[in-house]
Design goal:
alpha/beta, Rossmann fold, Transcription Regulator spoIIAA, 8-stranded mixed beta sheet, 7-stranded mixed beta sheet, 15 strands
Length: 500
């Protein structure tokens, strides 16, 4: 049972909403006979027609041959009763996210299909183990979490329930792979890989906003143009729907027994309560009515660049800045000491490390982490309230001379990109050590599932485990709730890195 399901074998899909139709189309285009079932009379036949229309559009766009479209249409059928799925080699469920409803469906399916039929759920939020809990043969049950739209997005999380046989998980994995998708293996954990590990991308942005560090448009711009993320969390949650995103966050938080690392945002809760759900309601974090103006991110006015800077010690992940400064024609001098840039006036520029400028008697300006300082179009700075204008001006001018837009945010610990990345690294390391998924599968899932520019473990290689752990330690000192306490695995890796 550990090989891909043959293309001559029938794949059945139960549930004919957007996801059900998408999964059926994927299996159909891969060459399988496909049967669609829906408990609502006539819904399966409507879905067959809708899939046929989508195949027609593929032909019109030259992405499918007319003969292949006709062959596929001949393999697609609506079923009026579960008994018609008896010969299916795989049944994928994509119905309402209700545990009791799913359990009843699979109990009925188990009576209709053979003992060698692979059963799968497309759930994104419920426990695969719990759904299979009442089955006579729970070992043949897996999660196949496709991402919407299923025909376009490559990632599929293949989820092993507590009772899932390894042969069943492997067969599901190989089948999805044969369909041209990118499967990743995952244990049955709240949120699986993507929805578990992605929480800090939203949560840290909302926390910075709630503390007055920066407005939503500015946070989004920094994460896009400095961090390299395709979309910022505010615009992304507006696209997803604030109610949907918050429901996932609350589900993961509740499933982890309200672990503070997954605490939802009060600001987002108020947004949902007000009915501002994002694009679908015409207003979320941003307005979407016709003619509405989107707020612009904070960008500083031009400032004079310093003629020279001093590089003190090793800048770590920001070392690439030295070459950029030299290319800009600014004289660079070197000296020993703690890693930072020293401006002509004596102020120090430090990479965000979880501390705040107001802690120091000397002038400290922080700059945020970038995935690639050469490619970054924007750099964020932060300094204590009342910092001398000439100090901030030198720092702004320096980065502007490198061709960057500069944003000054409030004096929040860890800034924006650095604290977000450190939390992503922490959750990813914890997931690896708990056997949720391999490091490679986690990075793949985050790149393909939510379009991250790098996976969390790839970020860890750039930032370093020691720096990530130190940053979180500082945040934990500032917010001693447990939210930022580094996991044991991150602390171990940080210690090992320091010993080398």
């Amino acid at each position: 049972m550990d090989e891909a399901i043959g293309r001559d074998r029938t794949v059945a899909v139960v549930g004919t909403g957007t996801m059900g139709q998408g999964i059926a189309q994927v299996a159909l285009v891969a060459g399988h006979p496909v049967r669609l079932y829906d408990s609502a009379p006539g819904r399966a036949a409507e879905a067959v027609a809708a899939i046929g229309a989508r195949l027609d559009r593929l032909v019109e766009k030259g992405r499918m041959a007319a003969a292949d479209r006709e062959a596929a249409a001949g393999r697609l059928h609506a079923a009026e009763d579960l008994a018609e799925l008896a010969d299916a080699a795989l049944v994928v469920e994509a119905i309402v996210e209700d545990l009791e409803v799913k359990q009843r469906l699979f109990a009925d399916l188990e009576k209709a299909v053979g003992d060698d039929t692979l059963l799968a759920t497309n759930t994104s939020s419920l426990s695969v183990t719990a759904i299979a809990g009442r089955l006579r043969l729970p070992g043949r049950f897996v999660g196949l979490h496709f991402f919407n739209p299923a025909p376009l997005l490559p990632l599929v999380e293949v989820v092993r329930g507590f009772a899932t046989d390894e042969t069943a998980a492997t067969r599901a994995y190989e089948t999805v792979l044969a369909w041209g998708k990118t499967p990743v293996r995952c244990a049955d954990t709240p949120g699986f890989i993507v929805n578990r590990i992605a929480r800090p991308f939203y949560a840290e942005a909302f926390r910075v906003y709630e503390e007055g560090g920066a407005d939503p448009a500015t946070v989004d711009a920094v994460l896009r143009e400095c961090g390299g993320f395709r979309m910022g969390p505010f615009e992304l949650t507006d696209l997803i729907g604030q109610d949907v995103n918050e429901a996932v966050t609350r589900s993961v938080w509740d499933s982890f027994f309200q672990d503070p690392k997954f605490t939802p945002s009060l600001a987002q809760r108020r947004l949902v309560e007000s009915g501002r759900l994002g694009r679908k309601s015409g207003h979320g974090w941003f307005p979407y009515a016709e003619g509405a103006e989107r707020p612009e991110p904070r960008t500083e006015a031009p400032a004079k660049a310093p003629e020279r800077i001093t590089v003190r010690g090793d800048l770590g992940p920001a070392e690439a800045l030295v070459g950029l400064v030299e290319e800009a024609g600014i004289r660079v001098e070197r000296e020993e000491g703690e890693g930072c840039l020293v401006l002509p006036g004596g102020a120090e520029l430090h990479l965000a490390d979880g501390e705040t400028s107001f802690q120091y008697q000397r002038e400290i300006v922080y700059f945020d982490l970038a995935l690639d300082y050469a490619a970054a179009g924007r750099i964020a700075l932060s300094a204590r309230e009342g910092v001398a204008p000439e100090v901030l001006g030198e720092a702004i001018g320096l980065f502007q001379a490198l061709g960057k837009k500069v944003t000054v945010i409030g004096d929040v610990p860890g800034m924006i990109v650095a604290r977000t990345v450190a939390m992503l690294v922490d959750l990813a390391v914890d997931a690896v050590d708990r056997g949720v998924a391999t490091a490679g599968d986690i990075d793949t899932a985050m790149r393909l599932g939510v379009n991250y520019p790098a996976g969390p473990l790839e970020w860890a290689a750039l930032l370093g485990y020691r720096r990530a752990a130190t940053l979180l330690d500082e945040l934990h000192d500032r917010y001693p709730t447990g939210r930022y306490a580094p996991c044991l695995g991150l602390a171990r890796r940080a210690y090992a890195e320091e010993e080398r």
